[in-house]
Amino acid sequence: MNKLYIKEPISGGLILSYKCTSECKHCMYACSPSWKAEWISEKDLERILQQLANRIKRSPFGEISINYGLHFTGGEPFLNFELLIEAVKMAKKLNIPSTFVETNCFWCINDEDIEERFLQLHDSGLNGVLLSVNPFILEHVPFERIEKAFKISKKIFGENVIVYQSFFYKDFKRLGIKNKLSFNEYLQKSPFSLYYMELLPMGRAVYQLSYLYKKFPAKYFFGLSCYEELTREWHIHIDNYCNYIPGYCAGISLGDARNLNSLIQGIELHDKPILNALITDLKNLYEFAVKEFNYKELSDGYISKCHLCVDIRRHIAKQTNEFKELKPKEFYYHL
Fold first, then answer.
1. CA–CA separation, 310 vs 308, rounded Å?
2. pTM of the full predicted structure?
3. N or C: which end of the chain has fewer CB within 10 A?
């Protein structure tokens, strides 16, 4: 293939920064406190939102839903509340539908402050809120803060509050948890909770949580490609460096999102051998990494094709800057 043709995005997320207050074991984007506090500029933000404005689709399941509309995320977007407010105002002015912010609730300490911030967002045009609730965030954020966020956000946004995942919110309340709790301690208290965990085997999870999965040799994934993931139109991401990230494929950039109109016309592959390999066969990526970068297969195997992909990409990214599709490079140092 000479070009990769992607579909116009109908939903997605804007990563305002990879900086976060937590370093969750399951994070697909390898966010953490150790990232530099580099935030998207208002100029780039406005340019990107202008190109998304006529493409993002309204949620058919109420005013907001996870895989529709546009969400502001990170990292933790509440680390830069002023920028978050500006992003919401810009999106409102451009009539972008079904907007919501995703937060881990670390900041939800004082009831008056929580209400004031949610009111500001609501009055600036934000449609809703997503509260991240899972055992990995519980290691970093006291559950009582999440409870406060839920109570007050419901007061302001009504039904437009998503608790992801609601199972864990109910389970933490059942257990009477108020403070933080380690993942292993939680599993001891609620061992069957793993059956309800929507855990995608990619990003940091393939290194931190691989013991939860059966593993396979690299050749098990030969014959598979990532074409569908790389070209899908829903739940794409654009980060603070303006990288257009397909789906959940963190660390892969299809190009500069400020030039979205150009990307949709076709992405040149002649200078992107890694991307070219991913859309054809993971075997090609593996053989390329072995031949050109002396990649060694993991002795205990891989839990998913995403594990094989990210491990090869990490190995290459730490040796060279020559591949423009491996961005941001810092991602590979925070897994």
1. 6
2. 0.97
3. N
